[in-house]
Design brief:
Elements: E1 6-10, H1 17-31, E2 38-43, H2 45-55, E3 61-64, H3 81-87, H4 97-103, H5 107-119
Parallel strand pairs: 1-2, 2-3
Length: 120
């Protein structure tokens, strides 16, 4: 089975909610004809709910840039899979090189995140 291509934008630590609205509004008509490729936007947490709302009736996927593998707990600043799902995320990035280099995420942590993402 061949993999379906994906064209994705990872906004990293960029875009205010207003900038995200403008970008998403401009993207939607351009992505409307994308039948042979998945289109995704991986937005910062602060923009995720709004982007998810805007792409709701389209083929565009709203995704998160990171998450923690536990569902809840005393993990200050982290976001869980249930939180992302509630915000409208249809995907999440795990194993990103910046997370590994700057924040020391190990293969073990990435494996836990990947397993949780698939399960969720």
């Amino acid at each position: 089975m061949a993999r379906r291509p994906m064209m994705a934008a990872n906004w990293k630590m960029n875009k205010t909610i207003r900038e995200a609205q403008d970008y998403t509004a401009a993207l939607l008509p351009r992505a409307a004809d994308a039948e042979e490729v998945d289109v995704a936007v991986f937005a910062p947490y602060t923009c995720l709910h709004e982007v998810a709302r805007m792409v709701e009736d389209s083929a565009v996927i709203a995704g998160a840039q990171n998450f923690y593998f536990e569902d809840s707990g005393a993990f200050t600043g982290e976001v869980s899979a249930p939180m992302l799902l509630d915000a409208g995320a249809g995907g999440v990035i795990v194993g990103h090189s910046e997370r590994r280099e700057l924040f020391g995420e190990s293969d073990e942590m990435v494996a836990k995140k990947a397993a949780k993402a698939v399960k969720s």
